[in-house]
Each structure stands twice: as C-alpha cells, then as structure tokens.
Amino acid sequence: MSSKTAVEYPNIPSILALVGGALIVLVDIFLLTVSIVILPHLNYTNFQTPRGYVGSPGALAAGFVGAIAVFGLICGIIVTMSAVLMRLKPGQRQTWGILVLVFSILGFFGFGGFIVGSVLGIVGGILTLRWKPVATADPAPRQ
Description:
Blueprint: H1 11-37, H2 57-88, H3 93-107, H4 116-130
Helix pairs in contact: 1-2, 1-4, 2-3, 3-4
C-alpha cells in the first residue's frame, strides 16, 4: 500500500498576500486610468508650472500620478505572483514570503491599494516567514 502525503503550505498567509496584491493591482490600474483619461483634461488655472517647464500642467500631474501608479502596479503584480507561487511551491515559502513583504512595503509608495492592500501583504509576508509545517506522526500501517 502506498500512502499519499499532502504537501503543507501556509494557507492563510498566502490568501492574505493574494488579497493584498490584488487590491494593490486594482487600485493602481484605477489610478493609471485616471492619470490617462481625467488628469490631462482638468482645468489648471490656479496651478503655477515649475520654472523652465514648457508643457501643460495637466501633463505634469498626469505624468506624476501615472509614474507612481505604474510603480505600484509592478509591486502589486510581484506580490500577487509571489502569493500564488507560495501555494504552488511551498518548499520555497521563505523566498516568496520575503518577496511579498518587501514589495508590499514598496507598494506604499504606489498608493498601496488604499493602504489596506499593503497592510494585508505585509501581514501575509510576516505570517509566511513565521509559519512552520506541522510535524505529524505517521500512524502505523494496519496489517
């Protein structure tokens, strides 16, 4: 008889990291859309452009928000992919936990999924790094 052994993985930490990464991605897609569609077309009559800048103020604001959104989007994608790989390759859970933790912290600079996404990612990364598989004794086979 052969017995199947299930490979353990950090279930709750990977779910927290996955939800956090998804929130970061969704919020940054929204912000990228706003920076492309809305910001260039707003009225900036009271906005004074920096000395030497010859472009429109809308392009300046859209470029700034767009760059931050792209950075946050990259961080969110890395957090999401690390959370998925944490479930698929649990033997490398520390690597994925470190990636989730680092890019969730960096995700704060890209608006962090309205802060909630980054906090969930940080908690998921910390719980992953602290998680240890449960050692269970194999019962004696029946004869």
